[in-house]
Amino acid sequence: MATPSFLSSFKYSDSLSVVGISICTAVVCEAISWLLIYRTNSYKSLKSSIDKASKKLETMKTDSNKIINKKSKTKKIDRVETSLKDASRDLSLFKFKSGAVVAVVLFVVFGLLNSLFEGKTVAKLPFKPFGIVMKMSHRGLPGNDATDCSMAFLYLLCSVSIRTNLQKFLGFSPPRSAAGAGLFPMPDPKTN
């Protein structure tokens, strides 16, 4: 049986098991990230330099009266933007090493859950999903009921939402200014 005996009497035991395992996995992944990244001095210095550069850039953009020469103002803003992009890229590369460890943990947990809940409906969706969402939500389930939800879909939704909110709660989410600038930043419209 996939769930402990005290949970098997509940109507939603399988879905609660998947959500509970997802919460535990998110906590373990954040603990790994804290051990490998968040407690190190290099991460703290990169984060503080990103915060300083973003505040400086914000004040430079709002304070257009202090700098009279337009050309020098744009050069200074471009310099600060470049340093912010470089620091954000360095931060993303720094986080990459724990990402590999976290990915291994997630693959192991997903494989375990997949073997426990293979072919079982763990939840019922309150709507009939469309196209590709239906393929993901009904993956590996017998029958044609589109409202049946597989473990993979529920686990994906839970792990994404729980881990993101846990990062925000613990203060580990990336700085706002660095959120868009990572390994693959948006192209600069001034250069195109």
TrEMBL record:
MF (Gene Ontology): calcium channel activity
Main location, first listed in the record: endoplasmic reticulum
GO terms for cellular component: endoplasmic reticulum membrane
Gene Ontology terms: biological process: endoplasmic reticulum calcium ion homeostasis
Domain of life of the organism encoding this protein: Eukaryota
Coiled coil (residue ranges): 43-90
Transmembrane segments: 16-38, 99-117
Pfam name, any one: EMC3_TMCO1
Bilayer topology term: Multi-pass membrane protein
Subcellular location: Endoplasmic reticulum membrane
InterPro entries in the record: EMC3/TMCO1, TMCO1
Keywords of the record: Calcium, Calcium channel, Calcium transport, Coiled coil, Endoplasmic reticulum, Ion channel, Ion transport, Membrane, Transmembrane, Transmembrane helix, Transport
Free-text function comment from the UniProt entry: Calcium-selective channel required to prevent calcium stores from overfilling.
UniProt similarity note: Belongs to the TMCO1 family.
Protein name stated in the entry: Calcium load-activated calcium channel
Species for this entry: Tripterygium wilfordii
Taxonomic lineage from the root: Eukaryota, Viridiplantae, Streptophyta, Embryophyta, Tracheophyta
